Amino acid sequence: MEKPVIERPTGPKPDDVVITDITVGDGDEAQANGMVKVHYVGVDFDSGQEFDSSWDRGEPIEFPLSNLIAGWQEGIVGMRVGGRRQLVIPPEAAYGPEGGGHPLSGRTLVFVIDLLAV
Q1: Is 72 helix (H, G, I), strand (E, B) or coil?
Q2: What pLDDT score was predicted for residue 103?
Q3: Helix, strand, or coil here: 95?
Q4: SS3 at position 84
Q5: What would the pLDDT profile of 62-103 be if each residue is shown by its tens digit?
Q6: In Å, how far from its chain's centre is CA 66?
Q7: In whole angstroms, how far apart are CA 54 and each of 19, 57, 112?
Q8: Pick from 13, 16, 5: which is nearest to 50 by CA?
Q9: Residue 70: in which H helix or E strand, if any?
Q10: Distance from the CA of 50 to the CA of which of 2, 5, 32, 89 falls in 20 to 30 A?
Q11: Distance CA 17, CA 6 (A)
Q12: Given this model, what pLDDT does residue 8 score?
């Protein structure tokens, strides 16, 4: 797989997490309390500007799903290894409302996530 290119979103921002499978994997399924190993790219919904990418660091990341923002916890569960999924995450399921202390507070975020292992 290679680093995905995320097109700048159009239309209104969603009120809830929007999950879109780009490629459905055929491996093991991500569980709510499990570990995941992923490659991902994140962009800002409004600007289309990339703010983070494991691809640019040259290696995937591995972590317990329960330690992630709510939108990832909701959006990765049920995904299968080998899959690629896009998540559009409103602020409430990301880093909270504007002024919340995180640089991405108040922003709707778009991620494309490749699930490599569980």
Answers
A1: helix
A2: 93
A3: coil
A4: strand
A5: 999 998 999 999 999 999 999 999 999 999 999 999 988 899
A6: 14
A7: 20, 5, 11
A8: 5
A9: helix 70-76
A10: 32
A11: 17
A12: 81
Bridge partners (DSSP) of residue 115 are: 38
* Cα–Cα dist 74/87, whole Å: 10
Q: pTM for the full model?
A: 0.95
CA distance 69 to 85: 16
Sequence-distant (≥ 6) Cβ neighbours of residue 53 within 8 angstroms:
3, 40, 41, 42
pLDDT digits (tens, 9 = 90+) for 18-77: 999 999 999 999 999 899 999 999 999 999 999 999 999 999 999 999 989 999 999 999
Tokens 């330690």 belong to 67
The residue whose two tokens read 């591995």 is 62
The full set of domains in the chain, from first to last, is 18-117 (3.10.50.40)
Phi and psi angles of residue 55, each rounded to the nearest 5 degrees, phi first: -60, -40
Mind giving me the DSSP string for 8-66?
PP-SPPPSS-EEEEEE---SPBP-TTSEEEEEEEEEETTT--EEEEHHHHTS-EEEEGG
Q: How far apart are CA 70 and CA 76, in angstroms?
A: 10
